[in-house]
Amino acid sequence: VPGPGRQTLQITRDAFSVEGRPAGWHAIERIRISPWKGKSRDASLIIHSFAARKDRIMIVRADTSLPAGEGWAARLAARRIGEWLTEAGIPYAAIDESEAGRIDAGHPSVLIFPYNPQLSPELLRATRAHVKRGGSCIVFFSSSEALADLMGIRIRPYIETKDIARWRSIRFADPESLQVPRDVYQQAWNQIPVKPKGHGAATVGTWADAFGRDSGENAVVRTPAGYWFTTLLRDDDARGKSRMLRGLIGSLDLSIWRDAARRSYEQVQRIDGYTSFPSIVASIRQSGQRHPNRETLDAFAARADAMYRHMQEQMKAGVFRGATLTGDRLRELLVMAYSMAQAPRPGEIRGIWDHDAVGWYPGDWDRTCRILAESGINTIFINALWGGLAHYESRTVPSSHTYRIHGDQLAQCIRAARKYGLKVHLWKICWNLENAPADFRGPMKKQGRLQEKADGTSMWWMNPAHPDNRRQELTAIREALERYDIDGFHLDYIRYPSGEADYSAYSRRAFEAATGRKVSEWPRDVLSGGRHADAYRRWRADIITSFVRDVRSVVDTTKPGTELTAAVWGAYPVIVQSIGQDWGRWLKEGLIDYAIPMNYAEELHGFTSLIDRQIDLTGKPRNLLPGIGVTAAESQLDPDQVIEQILAVRKRNLPGFVLFDLSKTVETETLPALERGLLRGD
Questions:
Q1: H, E, C per residue of 438-468
Q2: pLDDT tens figures, 559-588
Q3: How many other CB atoms are found less than 10 A from the CB of residue 253?
Q4: What share of the chain is helix, strand, coil (3-state, %, to 5)?
Q5: Cα torsion for 557, 563, 564, 569, to the nearest 10°?
Q6: Minimal CA–CA distance to 103: which of 123, 119, 118, 132?
Q7: Signed CA dihedral, 619, 645, 672, 301: sign only
Q8: Which contiguous run of DSSP H or E holds residue 381?
Q9: Are the beta carbons of 678 and 371 closer than 8 angstroms?
Q10: Which positions ≥6 away from 27 have C-beta within 8 Å?
Q11: 218 beta partners
């Protein structure tokens, strides 16, 4: 609940999880509503009405057709699509594959298969009946020959790529007819290619690379039974994917445009913290009175008034698709005017994380750094070094495919950054070996250097208590400091993976030696509730802190003056117990120059509550650079939401912020909005 006042909350079935073994959804007799505390203030919750609905769009989550270990991918794929449908205002139901009978009972208009490699006989039968009734399907990355035959598709052999530049966006040949964006940004590493077959099947979308060049490879095929995508949809370009799904579903079921129009109408009422269109326009006009571009802002406000009235007329006349599209254009206009009305603040740190470490245009760092500098960004954190991989030639860890294809990414980044006045921080992923080559990480498992869960399952994470691992990590850090002219060193994953680690035999011996405690029942005595649980959690945190202290020493002796920063979880101090990350202590002891808490939240109150708590607990506001999750898995922010979070940072007199991350959404939507106002040249 974002604030006071009467409002409508929609809670979809897939937002629930099951505890124990209940009788089933059909047997529910009572509903308990249990709000969680937000701010410390008196509040009342009044339920005006409560109703269930039956939806025409149905997401089918995989639960019976998955290879081992793929459950998380299926849940994530279904969750993403559900979130994008909600953003588009499209009501939907979500079922598991094992509930195929609900398709027969519900008679949906569109079935969506987010990631369903194979279909059970019962689900395939229900899907055939659905198509025979005139229903449609939207399928992603399936290898089901039977489903492909039903859809009028021919599946070809699976392919993958090591080139990060190859498949970067889906390009639609006729976006106007489908009411979808021309380009939808999508980083893909693998796909199951398909060819249309049969009458009425045709390619409607193809793959383009990082430079916008169309490859001609099929990405989306339309058939009389719906649409087929050759890959999964990933997090980036949430707005584009929401609009793509809206357009495709709307071409299959015209009734969804009524709900989409209502959602579009709601969205033009909400820019920044404003809750009505008149208040937004009034704010823009008020800002214009003291703005150097006053006439432009006045013109924007007048144009917005006219578009708003036109949208209302379309809604009244039942022209819902037209009203939806008018609302899209109106919101873009309002965001443009709102962003232009903001003022810059000189001297702040304006950072951005680059997780892929290749810029927007692999092989052309000059172009990326020029755009960043022109947009007002002054610091880049390049993710060029992992626990078992580097995007440059290293003597300590293997070099990546990216290095072999596109060359030394750190050197290229530094060279271009210097040209445009950007600072470069080398972003180091600690301990994690998940992307390391098998011949590098395999011996570590044999040597007992990996972390383990309580059941003895190995994890592809180095044990931070093992001296060989610490030595290897410090050697890689020293090597980078000696070879590259970087401005800062940035630690990430500087923690344990979760509360489920580490319970290896080596950690048992190290804990007993460090504390003098004999653990008779391992790991039971150090698990939650165990007699040594608290001491073990403290020991884990001390291990991580001691490593940060070692890194600080290496930085100061190898390249004095280099800043040391750390990406940290925002929920401090509870994370000291869960992942051993006591970053408040690091600040107080001066081990790092800046903590960059990953405060990824879509609602402003969630973002500011994290910051305020971090300031209170650490007492180090000048050493906090809040991370803003523009395109994080946990948050997908529109430009106006990014603006209001930056304004919240400035209000608290913090030294700056860091955006996550260097995505196409940030390039094409976020930075242009920030450049117009908040980051205007200083």
A1: HHHHHHHHHCCCEEECCCCCEEEEECCCCHH
A2: 999 999 999 999 999 999 999 999 999 999
A3: 16
A4: 45, 20, 40
A5: 180
A6: 123
A7: negative
A8: strand 379-385
A9: no
A10: none
A11: 206
| Geometric angle at alpha carbon 319, from 204 and 82, rounded to 5° | 55
How far apart, in whole angstroms, are the C-alpha atoms of residue 553 and residue 535? 27
288-297, 447-456, 478-487, 651-660: which has the minimum mean pLDDT?
288-297
In tens, the pLDDT along 116-165 reads 999 999 999 999 999 999 999 999 999 999 999 999 999 999 999 999 99
Q: Which residues pair with 628 in a beta bridge?
A: 659
CA nearest to 295, candidates 343, 331, 340 = 340
CB count, 10 Å around CB of 309?
10
User: With contact defined as beta carbons under 8 Å apart, do 143 and 192 qualify?
Assistant: yes
Site of tokens 């006009």 = 285
Query: Do 386 and 432 meet the contact criterion of CB atoms below 8 Å apart?
Result: yes
Whether the pTM exceeds 0.85: the reply is: yes
Residue 69 DSSP symbol: T
Joined together, the tokens standing for residue 636 give 């997908």
Model confidence over 506-543: pLDDT tens digits? 999 999 999 999 999 999 999 999 999 999 999 999 99
Which residues face 62 on adjacent strands? none
% of the chain with per-residue pLDDT over 70: 99
- Say whether the peptide bond before residue 502 is cis (omega within 30 degrees of 0): yes
